[in-house]
Amino acid sequence: MKRSYASLVVLIGIFSIVISCGRKDPKLFRLLSPKDTGLEFENTIIENDSVNVFEFMNIYTGAGVAVGDINNDGLPDVYLSGNMVSGRLFLNKGGLKFEDISETAGILNSSWGTGVTMVDINQDGLLDIYLCVSGGAQESERANLLYINKGDLTFEEKASEYGLADTRQSMHAAFFDYDKDQDLDMYLLVNPAAYEQSVNVSQQRKLNGESISNDRLYRNEGNGTFKDVTMDAGILTEGYGLGIGVSDINNDSWPDIYISNDFIGSDLLYINQKDGTFKNKLSEYINHTSYAGMGNDVADINNDGKSDILVLDMRPEDNKRQKLIISSTGYDRFQLMLNAGYDPQYSRNTLQLNRGMGEFSEIGFMSGVSSTDWSWSPLLADYDNDGFKDLYVTNGFLRDLGNLDYINYQNIYDNPLGDYEAKLRKKLESIRNLPAAKLNNYAYRNKGDVTFENVTEAWGIDTPSCSNGAAYADLDNDGDLDLIVNNVNQPAFLFENTADVFGDRNYLRIQLKGQKGNLDGIGSTIQITTDSITQYYEHYLSRGYESAVDRTVHFGIGKYNSIDSLKITWPDEREQILTNVKANQLLTLNQSSAKIKEGAIGAGSYDSPLFTNVTDSLEISYNHKEDPMVDFKIQSILPHMHSRNGPGIAVGDVNNDDMDDFYIGGAAGFPGKLFLQNSMGQFSTSSFTPEAHFEDMGALFFDADGDEDLDLYVVSGGVSLDNERPSYQDRLYINDGSGNFTRFFDFPDINSSGSVVTASDFDHDGDLDLFIGGRVTPGSYPTPAKSYLLENILDSKTGKMGFKDISASIDNWSKLTMVTSALWSDYDNDGWTDLMVVGEFMPITLFHNNQGKLVHIAPEKAGLLDTSGWWNSLVGGDFDNDGDIDYLLGNVGLNNRYNVSKNTPVSIYAKDFDKNGKIDPVMSYYTDGDEYIVHSRDEIIGQINAMRARFKTYESYSDVTFKEAFLPEEIEGSYILRSSLFESSFLENLGNGQFSIKALPKSCQIGPIEGILVEDFDRDGNLDALLTGNSYTTEVSIGRYDAIKGIVLKGNGKGQFSTLPIEKSGFFNDWDASALTRLTNAEGTMYVLVANNDAALKIFELNNQEKGLFSSIKVPANIVSAEIVLNNGTSYKREFYLGEGYLSQNSRSILLNDIIKAIKLKDNQGNIRTVYDNDSLQ
After folding, report:
1. In the CATH scheme, what is the code of domain 29-400+435-513?
2. What is the DSSP letter of 633?
3. How many angstroms separate the Cα of 1018 from the Cα of each of 357, 406, 608, 1014?
4. Helix, strand, coil % (nearest 5) of the chain?
5. Cα 620 to chain center, whole Å?
6. Could you name the domain of life of the organism this protein comes from (predicted)?
7. Interval 478-526: pLDDT, tens
8. How many C-beta neighbours within 10 Å does residue 9 have?
9. Cα-flanking dihedrals φ and ψ of residue 423, to 5°?
10. Under CATH, domain 611-899+980-1177 is a member of which superfamily?
């Protein structure tokens, strides 16, 4: 009997394994049948000769969804808007069953419905329905509709009585209390169906409120009517609005408005002025936006208490559709757009990360949400109940009008000559033959680190469709958010969320009971905290595209069974705080229970910032002026220009008065300047004026001639002229000891475009030798310029000076390609400074100093394999306090389209493919598992005209791999470079010549890092770092790298870093930064200098430092390193560099603080002496 039972158990187990192996993993969402749910609706569009895209451009833009409990039975009901069909109202009967009550409810109409929202407009406790209307040629046909809820499941249309029967062809409306008078006002999003001008041509913008495409603002008069106050309120800028988001963008407790505009019209950010007016401040808060802005949503994606902004566009995910529908912008066209007053815009989804203090960083590429094709509605909400807001995106278009072959075909019929009717018939026929862009919608799971994972298939929402409006709501009250989606020519979707069947998916639902005038508490904010994780929510219902979500607030809280604290701030700024709130319940919060909060908003949130901008108070005026060179005129498919890489900064005491002075480089036509410091800590410009026709790059103060004063070396770079011209000659200026400089001409010819200069007595002969990095051969990118190692052959007896190029004697010197930064550093602590070099399309490259002879170290022998990147900068510091030097390296970052990895590198194939005497730098990258050309068909033809005959259509070009695009014999002989690592990184020194590379925090990956400065800024005994970056030189299809705002990395002494928010750091620079250096003033105060390309120099003061006699120690010229001993017994090593970071040289000084016990200096002969002992000072 026992044996039989055991056998049965085994059989059951085997059977279970078989069953489980054959069963698919459960999906988060389940698409329910309309027949089963009763939610039967289809937004059917039928084209004809009078209703078509040529007569009505918005014919395919679809309609929205609104969700709300119209009969207060605790179940959210659904309204689906219709274009050529009437919208319909569905009553939720429970159990995900619905009843169509449209006819009996009295809401059927013949209007072209667009956006819809549910709002209790008359404050009787019942939700009403406001429907936006477009379409009709007659005003009476396009008046917006307001259905007043009579409380018996019937409605009465009363838009005219309320003053809301606007006839301007609107897309959506948002209700909120903009003037804080305790009632709900309305913003109306306008998008005319027939545009009065070309929508993609740069022309003078209308900013006076009189355009037919100007939005409207209606103020609630408090007497049951609304008044159009558009002009008085400052809503004056035209646009083609498709999305509206309401949020307190600047955290001043007043609601602001974000408008995403289609076509060339810039997005709008209306900041509430608290006096009934708004000002468009987009360019002050946001550096660039989407080009064809679609729907938007505003929510806190990273749980930092700040609302972020997501705007959709039309960039496809796959290579084929990218090449088929994304046209080439072109540098000239982009500049025309900027010159006409439009803000920078790029064809992709944009995710604006709120950095605080009115600053946003656009991180869509890095976050993984940049490309969702012809998208409409983004909805940010926690669908899997893990405590982070995920993203749902609707997608598709009834006719694939973006097809570039179709557009070119249509252009034939736009010729004014010929029979109009015949041409129109041809155009209509071509439209009917154009297939639909029926695409899957997208789901992205928030990974909790500002990045998202595409879980479209895993979550079960990959059904192809032409979807537009969408809304979320917990339709079955089971604690997770379901989705309702409005489709064109396809039944509407109802996705049931099954998160409740998964483990650790707890939630909290909240119902708000506001006061008369705003019964639903619109505009309230809620913060919940669970185990130090704080979620933030703003209560506004119009979201995504043409849609409104349910008024019941939803939080996912993952594994937690309770919430530590909950704080709600009501629209009147009264607060309510609850603690130990039980999970998995519907909690009701009443405004009547709230109390007036204590203290001002944000009071005491932050201590004094670490840095203060003192540029104006120091009266140091320097504005870098760049020459107008445009590299794309020479090589049109460059990834970025090389004519605007400066300026550099060198710091040193040039007149021997024991005070730091500095030189900042110029550009061709605008010479650099030397600033001298006086005993009062003030700076004035020297009479020294270098030649103006050079493009300055790196600069270095060093003693070239052994006379114990600092001479000046300046690297000449850029690509403005042909190669091998005198304007690329580097310059050496000899100091007379008083800060007067004379150019030294007996110098090796270096007529190549360079980048960096750094010095060291690498051969221990008592003088300083130079490394000069070569950048690029002008007009022949990516061909590198030559790099040099110049041995100083100073005769100590006669004082005769000279330099000798010995680079040819060093094996594998040719491994150096487009150099950007270099560092002389003794990484193995053998007393000889080694050379570390980085650059563009170049691995981290080591030359070990074997007692005065440089020996190249193979990357695999040092743990540096697969480190080829687009490196910009390199600095050293003992970040783990173990006595050897580790390194921070600035790279291009991850916020770009290339998606590089070890197995998916970005490559460049350089060759004169069309034999016209010019190098064609063709780039490739991996997507969809294959290698493809980066460039669009128009771009590749612009560079290699022969490609026009090979790819006669966009379709023929759209799906060819790189190997199929070129013949093998064409690729043969190409100069090929690859990069597989784009992350700015921490290089840990493991000892024994071995390294381990790790990515720096995500804040350092949102753009290129250029300047890096190392110091213990917060005086905790651990090295920290300042970082700057950005690049405005990129090709316009990818757009400017402009997300870096200035970064303070706080080190923990273990090789780990955390990022200080801007409010705490006070270090802010969002320009195109280059050099980053520090100097000390006459009192020993540390200043940080930030050089910016084509912009002003910025200067910051470190706030927490001691001032006076014992605030810093000057380091003599012969010192190479120091041991900093701390009071707690630990110590770290510090090296002193002549050139580091990006085109930077720092003050040779050590900042003192109360945690330093002793400082021991080591010279280049290995001698050690103690120069500071805190015990002896007591």
Report:
1. 2.130.10.10
2. G
3. 22, 60, 12, 12
4. 15, 35, 50
5. 31
6. Bacteria
7. 999 999 999 999 999 999 999 988 888 999 999 999 999 999 999 999 9
8. 10
9. -65, -40
10. YVTN repeat-like/Quinoprotein amine dehydrogenase (2.130.10.10)
